[in-house]
Amino acid sequence: MKQTSKAAVPYIIWMSVFIVIPLFLIGVFAFTTTVTVDAAGNIIDPETLGYMDGAGIDRETGELTADESEEETDISWVTFPLTEKTIFTLDNIFAVSDYLPVLFLSIWLALIATAICLIISYPLSYMISRMNFQRQNIMLMLVMLPMWMNFLLRTYAWMTLLERNGWINKLLALIGLGPFEMINSQGAVVLGMVYNYLPFMILPLYSIMTKIDERTIESAQDLGAGALAVFGRVILPLSMPGIASGITMVFVPAVSTFIISRMLGGGTNMLIGDLIDLQFLGNAYNPNLGAAMSLVLMIFVLLCMSLTNQLDNEEMESVLL
Amino acid sequence: MKSTKDKIVELRNIRMDFDGEPVLRGINLDIHDNEFVTLLGPSGCGKTTTLRIIGGFVTPVSGDVIFEGKRINDLPPYKRNVNTIFQKYALFPHLNVYENVAFGLRVKKTPEKEILSRVVEMLELVDLEGYEKRSVNNLSGGQQQRVAIARALINNPKVLLLDEPLGALDLKLRKEMQIELKKIQQRMSITFVYVTHDQEEALTMSDTVVVMSNGIIQQIGSPQDIYNEPSNAFVADFIGESNIVSGIMRRDHLVEFCGYTFECLDSGFEESEEVDVVIRPEDITLSDASNGDVTGIRGVVETVTFKGVHYEIIVNTPEDIWIIHSTKARAVNDTVGISMTPDDIHIMKKSERPKVTRYTVNAEVEADEANK
């Protein structure tokens, strides 16, 4: 027991440095903001501050260096010097509500992509799991093959396929169809999500389905269950843990993606991931708002995960053993 | 004896192969109502395949499967009035004991009230009252076995197929379950088709034993017939231990082996025909060679092993190695005489195969067969 707890120390350190502390910092950022206060501690609102900068009032001394303003704003209450201060605020969290449509669009598209992945993967995984060992390996390699290629490259490849002058439209033109506007649409974003995250659905489903003993299926048939009853009463409930982890593994990255929406969605289908990206690395630089968005997104993801965990109840755990 | 007139399952010239490898080479078998039939044979002999053909999980390449007079070759398992107890039980891991047993009725959309009373009845039958809510994953092997029995019997099958159901249990539990299964079979008066490689199990439980090897039925008969009158050397060797030596029929009731002639009860062989001579280890009498009055086969004791009821004594003679069961121990390296009475000598037609060795057919064949 002692041996194992000692061996866990590096992992605990790793997790605290790279997971717990960053999470804590996101929390700190999300609930704070930086404001300018005067010597008396009064917060200077942005308009006043803007006026003062415009009027050329020195922040340290309050001296008028150049009088270029036309309108007079009463700043007699301001005591100098002005300093910056970080204060607790809920404003960031409330500000996220302005972006709720983007958040809901992200969740909606990720849900569609997850559902499509599930529909494609479920029968496929089942078929793979019933093949002989050698074929299983070949099929799994085919599933994994696209993942050997860089994520950006794969998504970029879809751009060249879907473009107005892309390969698909060129091919369609040969038979006199199109051109169609395929890129820069929500459909293209969903396609990108499905394409990129499909293996993450197939693998957990496959691994749980290989654990379903052929004899269990046969005993259901033996007891009078036709194909539909075998599926509904045996295969589906036994594969629930795989469904749950597959959903989590597709939904979570899909809901927070920003590369796919940027490359395939054009500027018009901005997702929450893009928005967060903008707050940290883009023009709209505002780490506090970005952190608040991440936090809200995290809460939604946790909610979704607790829902899928309902699929995967205690009885299922014993199946996995 | 119970009535064995009505045929319930008939197998007519069943042939089966897996990947071009013949597994069954023409099986003909009648199974009667209320009969306890055991398919006995070494791994890979085709017994499990035969069972799966009756269950509907395997479709034979040729031949007819007839159930109550109707050909059912193409009837899927869920439409057959036959239930199976699988090797290692194959219980539904996601369902508790109650739901496992209720499964057969659930898929038939039986009213809840009837399900309840039937499940309770079945659990009583297998002594599992009070286990309804337990998860099947937390049951012992014996309890899982009982759940499997209850689950298979709830549909009131005409025939219950059992695929080495006691294989995973320890010896004591296996003995108990043998008796219990036999009781259940008699109480419910249904036909049991039981697959095992354990000859003792087969002899204890069955009305009829079907000895199989290499995809062929070697002998069908009552346990007594099979043991006392094995029809060939394979059966003799597989059912209990046997000494099988080559001999020559000199004339009716006289056989020569190991350089001596012996009187025997068998007749109907050609003169000078080569035959297999089968002698059970417990039928051999050892005599002290040091007395000098031994005129028959002589040998040297190689090993003596205490087996509880008897000693197993291995004796080397110039031609053969003999297994002898005796209640009297001998010293290693003693010279002994081997003798037997005429009715202990069983003469059989020379089998095509050379001397049969048991437990050498690899287990993979059976496993492969099971995976199909």
Could you characterize what this model shows?
The complex is a heterodimer of chains A (321) and B (372). Chain A has 2 domains: 2-93, no CATH class; 96-320, MetI-like fold (Orthogonal Bundle), CATH 1.10.3720.10. In chain A, 67% of the residues lie in helices and 4% in strands. Chain A has helices spanning 2-7, 9-30, 46-55, 91-96, 100-129, 133-144, 151-162, 167-174, 186-209, 214-222, 227-255, 259-264, 272-281, 287-311, 314-320, and strands at residues 32-37, 43-44, 83-88. In chain A, α5 (100-129) packs across α11, α11 runs antiparallel to α14 (287-311) and α11 (227-255) packs across α15 (314-320). Helices cover 25% and strands 33% of the residues of chain B. In chain B, β16 (297-306) and β17 form a beta hairpin. In chain B, α2 (97-106) crosses α3, α2 packs parallel to α4 (141-153) and α3 (112-125) crosses α4. The A-B interface holds A 213-216, 218-226, 229, 233-234, 237-238, 315-316, 318-319, 321 and B 55-57, 76-78, 82-84, 86-88, 90-94, 103-104, 106-108, 135, 137-138, 151-152, 155, 371.
What's the short story on this structure?
The complex is a heterodimer of chains A (321) and B (372). By secondary structure, chain A is mainly alpha-helical.
Question: How would the blueprint of this fold be written?
Answer:
The complex is a heterodimer of chains A (321) and B (372).
Chain A lengths: L1 H6 L1 H22 L1 E6 L5 E2 L1 H10 L27 E6 L2 H6 L3 H30 L3 H12 L6 H12 L4 H8 L11 H24 L4 H9 L4 H29 L3 H6 L7 H10 L5 H25 L2 H7 L1
Helix pairs in contact in A: 2-14, 5-9, 5-11, 9-11, 10-11, 11-14, 11-15, 13-14
Chain B lengths: L6 E12 L2 E12 L3 E5 L6 H9 L6 E6 L2 E2 L10 E4 L11 H10 L5 H14 L15 H13 L5 E5 L7 H18 L2 E6 L2 H7 L2 E6 L2 E6 L1 H6 L4 H6 L4 E9 L2 E4 L2 E4 L10 E6 L5 E4 L8 E10 L4 E6 L4 E6 L8 E5 L6 E4 L13 H9 L1
Helix pairs in contact in B: 2-3, 2-4, 3-4
